[in-house]
């Protein structure tokens, strides 16, 4: 008798980003170099990468070359992206520097934030936006609200 099939397979979470990319093979190499991604699998197809999976820390990202015939379009094809991927890492400054060296562009430089993270944001060479962060302080929701209120302009 076959074993029970889990609705969410081992090694995956309920939500997994899936990126469509012009140049998915190059993107995989960028994510390895910049973010320390580990390639789990790659399915090569005649038009490029049909599906690939990367581990980033304890998370999985899926990706493929864009396929306009099924509206799987990259940020370059649609003129940007409304989505940002948030990535926690042990050393945000080192990861950010590697990403910039690999061709990423700064959206917001790395700095200490009022909510306890040291973080910055960037656009990778393939048009996807990333917030990269390292937690520096564990704060309660009330502490974060108090700090945010102190930053708000006085009216």
Shape: globular
Query: So, the CATH homologous superfamily?
Result: 2,3-Dihydroxybiphenyl 1,2-Dioxygenase, domain 1
User: Looking at CATH, which topology would you report?
Assistant: 2,3-Dihydroxybiphenyl 1,2-Dioxygenase, domain 1
Helix content: 10-25%
The count of domains is 1
Tell me the total number of β-strands. Answer: 8
Number of helices: 4
What is the H/E string? EHEEEHEHEEEH
The CATH class:
Alpha Beta
Enumerate the spans where pLDDT stays under 50 for 5 or more consecutive residues: none
Mean pLDDT over the full residue set: 95
Terminal-residue CA separation: 70 Å
- The neighbouring-strand order within the major sheet is 1-4-3-2
Quote the beta fraction. 35-45%
CATH hierarchy: architecture:
Roll
Largest sheet: 4 strands, mixed
CA-atom Rg in angstroms: 18 Å
User: Structural class per helix/strand content?
Assistant: alpha/beta
What does this entry look like structurally?
This protein is α/β, with parallel strands linked by helices. The chain has one domain (18-151): Roll (2,3-Dihydroxybiphenyl 1,2-Dioxygenase, domain 1). 24% of the residues lie in helices and 35% in strands. The chain contains 4 helices and 8 strands, in the order βαβββαβαβββα. A 4-stranded mixed sheet has the order 1-4-3-2, with helices on one face. Strand 3 and strand 4 form a beta hairpin. Helix 1 runs antiparallel to helix 3. The longest helix has 12 residues, at 24-35. The radius of gyration is 18 Å and the shape is globular. The N and C termini lie far apart (70 Å). 25% of the residues are buried.
């Amino acid at each position: 008798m076959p074993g029970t099939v889990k609705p969410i397979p081992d090694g995956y979470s309920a939500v997994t980003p899936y990126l469509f990319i012009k140049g998915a093979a190059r993107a995989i190499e960028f994510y390895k170099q910049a973010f320390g991604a580990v390639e789990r699998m790659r399915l090569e197809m005649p038009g490029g990468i049909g599906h690939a999976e990367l581990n980033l820390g304890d998370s999985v990202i899926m990706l493929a070359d864009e396929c306009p015939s099924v509206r799987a379009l990259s940020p370059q094809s649609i003129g940007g992206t409304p989505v940002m991927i948030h990535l926690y890492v042990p050393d945000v400054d080192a990861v950010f520097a590697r990403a910039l060296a690999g061709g990423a562009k700064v959206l917001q430089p790395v700095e200490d934030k009022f909510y306890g993270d040291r973080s910055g944001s960037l656009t990778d060479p393939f048009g996807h936006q990333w917030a990269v962060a390292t937690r520096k302080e564990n704060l309660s929701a009330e502490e974060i609200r108090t700090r945010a209120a102190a930053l708000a302009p006085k009216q």
